[in-house]
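Supplementary Methods. Inverse-folding protocol.

Structures were first reduced to a discrete structure-token string of length 340. This string, shown here, constituted the complete conditioning input.
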């Protein structure tokens, strides 16, 4: 049975399950970083050494280019196999008794955790047509991203990012823990704003376009939200790197807005462009993002944000260029959907 013909209730259950798996993958990366200081003290090493635990997780970048083609050949269910190994290696990290075991298991956790991040985009493309991937994805993606933001915010508020302080210590330092959670709450606000903007674009622009053109739209019609996000993204990085705390909060909020607008438009653009090869296209995107994440920690906040800000500034032109020249570029690819 074609997954697009499944009942809406079944599609929703599958989507929520895929979203939960993807969220766990991202959360595993972020939550380990919050324990760096505690682990460094426990094992008598520097914070720089313990950062390897996060860096090695992100360096599991061969995963996307392995699992995405496999999902296209053998089906999306193959994502469940690496997820099982992700669970096993995460459990091995939790029970590790030395640094060598932590670092090795973190690398393989990242390798296998990349499978759902890579293949979920293709799976959702199998479930929903162009119209449904407009407004429905707005809700599903914001659910996934805000779940991560809320989880991280609660971890900061409860003191888990400082080694799990006792209740009385949390109570006595409430202002500090609230302040630590504010950046994640600002990102949460940003993703909610982006969800509203994406929803408005889908309802007021994209779906009326489909109605006028026989439920068919060129992939480039996905790009206008990315254009807006592309302009906001470099601004967010420069605010994060070089302004006072108030400016940094706005930077976090703009980052949340920009990221969701770019990410949702990009995923939809990949699926509309590469159709049956969508998972591999998303995999290439994940591969590049993982490398960038692993490099960021070595530069410090100011210059790290500046580097990303300048790169984002250079990339601002990309959605505009694809909007203008996309049909010609797709005609040059044997994997992309033809403009005709």
């Amino acid at each position: 049975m074609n997954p697009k013909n499944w009942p809406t209730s079944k599609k929703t259950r599958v989507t929520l399950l895929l979203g939960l798996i993807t969220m766990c993958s991202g959360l595993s990366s972020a939550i380990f970083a919050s324990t760096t200081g505690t682990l460094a003290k426990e094992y008598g090493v520097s914070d720089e050494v313990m950062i390897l635990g996060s860096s090695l997780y992100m360096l599991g970048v061969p995963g996307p280019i392995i699992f995405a083609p496999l999902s296209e050949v053998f089906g999306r269910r193959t994502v469940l196999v690496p997820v099982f190994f992700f669970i096993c290696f995460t459990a091995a990290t939790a029970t590790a008794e030395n640094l060598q075991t932590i670092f090795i298991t973190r690398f393989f956790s990242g390798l296998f955790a990349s499978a759902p991040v890579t293949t979920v985009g293709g799976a959702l493309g199998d479930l929903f047509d162009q119209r449904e991937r407009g407004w429905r994805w707005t809700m599903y993606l914001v659910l996934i991203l805000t779940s991560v933001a809320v989880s991280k915010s609660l971890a900061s508020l409860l003191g888990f990012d400082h080694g799990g302080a006792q209740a009385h210590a949390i109570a006595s330092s409430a202002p500090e823990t609230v302040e630590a959670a504010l950046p994640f709450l600002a990102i949460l606000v940003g993703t909610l704003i982006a969800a509203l903007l994406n929803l408005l674009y889908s309802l007021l622009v994209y779906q009326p376009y489909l109605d006028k053109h026989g439920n068919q739209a060129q992939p480039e019609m996905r790009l206008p939200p990315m254009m807006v996000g592309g302009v906001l993204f470099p601004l967010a990085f420069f605010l994060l790197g070089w302004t006072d705390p108030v400016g940094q909060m706005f930077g976090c909020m703009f980052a949340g807005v920009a990221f969701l607008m770019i990410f949702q438009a990009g995923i939809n653009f990949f699926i509309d462009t590469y159709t049956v090869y969508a998972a591999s296209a998303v995999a290439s995107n994940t591969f590049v993002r993982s490398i960038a994440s692993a490099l960021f920690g070595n530069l410090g906040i100011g210059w790290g944000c500046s580097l990303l800000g300048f790169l984002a500034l250079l990339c601002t032109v990309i959605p505009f260029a694809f909007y203008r020249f996309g049909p010609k570029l797709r005609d040059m690819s044997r994997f992309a959907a033809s403009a005709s």
